[in-house]
Design a protein that fits this description.
- Helix 4 links the parallel strand 4 and strand 5.
- The chain contains six helices and five strands; from the N terminus they run E-H-E-H-E-H-E-H-E-H-H.
- By secondary structure, the protein is α/β, with parallel strands linked by helices.
- The chain has a five-stranded parallel beta sheet with strand order 2-1-3-5-4, sandwiched between helices.
- The structure holds D-ribose (RB5).
- The site of D-ribose has 8 residues, from helix 3.
- D-ribose binds next to helix 3.
């Protein structure tokens, strides 16, 4: 589970910029510390240019958890999951966000900005941050994800 003493890594492309800014403000109001990896405007850019620095930082242990946002969430999740220790989950409601933590020990939440309302995305993020990995049989499965 994410601790409020930690810093959350947050990144987006142009399609996710407005949602990222909304989440940044709301998370700060809720007492979370956020590191904003950009992008910093709605100017068109390429999602891997943000997904790589964020996923790399999580992979190296600089952050335990991140949120990545693009139009669909798909490009961000595909890119982030290239890293060995990354389990990036594309979620668009509270239940998926909760299960991605409980069952998959997801460490990056990917959000589809063009397919989710801002308030719903905020709720999904808060649930993602507060939910613990269930371990047990799910640990066995997570341990089998890596290509040996
Ligand atoms: C940008 O138009 C869009 O392709 C991007 O935000 C994302 O949805 C890609 O997966």
């Amino acid at each position: 589970m994410f601790k409020k003493s930690e810093t959350l890594a947050l990144g987006c492309d142009h399609a996710g910029y407005e949602l990222k800014e909304f989440l940044k403000i709301k998370l700060a109001e809720t007492g979370y510390s956020v590191r904003d990896f950009g992008t910093y405007s709605t100017a068109s850019m390429d999602y891997p240019d943000v997904a790589h620095p964020v996923a790399s930082a999580v992979n190296e242990g600089q952050y335990s958890t991140a949120v990545l946002i693009c139009g669909t969430g798909i490009g961000m999740s595909i890119t982030a999951n290239k890293y060995e220790s990354i389990r990036a989950a594309l979620c668009w409601n509270n239940e998926l966000a909760k299960l991605s933590r409980e069952h998959n020990d997801a460490n990056i939440l990917c959000l589809p900005a063009r397919f989710i309302e801002a308030e719903k995305a905020l709720q999904a993020v808060l649930i993602f941050l507060k939910t613990e990995f269930a371990g047990g049989r799910h640990q066995v499965r997570v341990d089998k994800i890596q290509i040996k």
